[in-house]
Amino acid sequence: MPSYLLLIFNLILLAVSWVMLIYAYPRLPSFIPLWLNFSGSPFLYSKSLLIFLYPLGETIFNLLFIKLARLRIRWPQPKKAVKGLPATSASSRSRLRQEFTLLALIFFNLIFIHVERSLILVAHQVEKGVNSFYFLMLFLILIMLIPYYRIRELMEKKQSQSRPRVSPKNQKGKKLKKKNQENS
User: Fold this and answer.
1) Residues spanned by the domain of 22
2) Residue 125: pLDDT band by 50, 70, 90 thresholds?
3) CA dist 19 to 11, 12, 13, 61, 138, Å?
4) Could you tell me if residue 108 is inside a domain?
5) Mean pLDDT along residues 161-182
6) Residue 182 placed within a domain
């Protein structure tokens, strides 16, 4: 999947988080939970703008995650492809890491949204707390992505090692030899 689509999905999820809380805030009761523990007992506080710390924290998390990933991954800049040369293994591994980072960020955004949704529903006394099964499944899928992308990275590395690498200088040299042989 192209990484720009994953980035768009992340931005959509971030926008959903903000819109959901902006829409729900005026409708919240006078006492709202700002935190839920896993036993289901909320910590109620009087209604305040502190509830917006969740989408704000999510936004900061997204920015830091992408910034740190860029430093580690060195996201590739679009380059003109040289005809006849295979893509380097370093750029394909970088692309895989970029894809993994953005996909992992989608799951983190879903976790943030789930916590916010749970807080809103607990405030309205519709739910008792976080849906532990959903929360656990998001984390398990996130953890399962790690070996999946490691295996893909190893496969890319093996494929790039099995492909013959022809440098532009060698191609020119072979063409000149061939041309000289034809002329002789």
Assistant:
1) 3-164
2) confident
3) 12, 10, 10, 18, 22
4) yes
5) 61
6) no
145 close to 103: Cβ distance less than 8 angstroms: yes
* Three-state secondary-structure class, residue 42: strand
Tens digits of residue pLDDT in 47-81: 888 889 999 999 999 998 888 777 554 445 555 55
Give residue for tokens 């496969």. 155
**pTM higher than 0.90 for the full model?**
no
What letter would DSSP give residue 124? T
Residue 137 lies in a domain: yes
Q: Which residues pair with 45 in a beta bridge?
A: 32
Average pLDDT along the chain:
78
Question: What are 164's two structure tokens?
Answer: 């013959």
Task: Please name the residues in contact with 97: beta carbons below 8 A apart, sequence gap of 6 or more.
Answer: 69, 72, 73, 149, 153
Largest pairwise CA distance in the chain: 94
Q: Cβ distance 109 to 13 under 8 Å?
A: yes
List C-alpha distances in Å: 31 to 16, 51, 123, 165: 23, 11, 7, 66
Q: How far is CA 3 from CA 68, 101, 143, in A?
A: 16, 10, 20
Task: State residue 35 phi and psi, 5-degree precision.
Answer: -155, 145
Alpha helices in the chain (DSSP H): 3-24, 53-73, 89-123, 132-162, 168-183
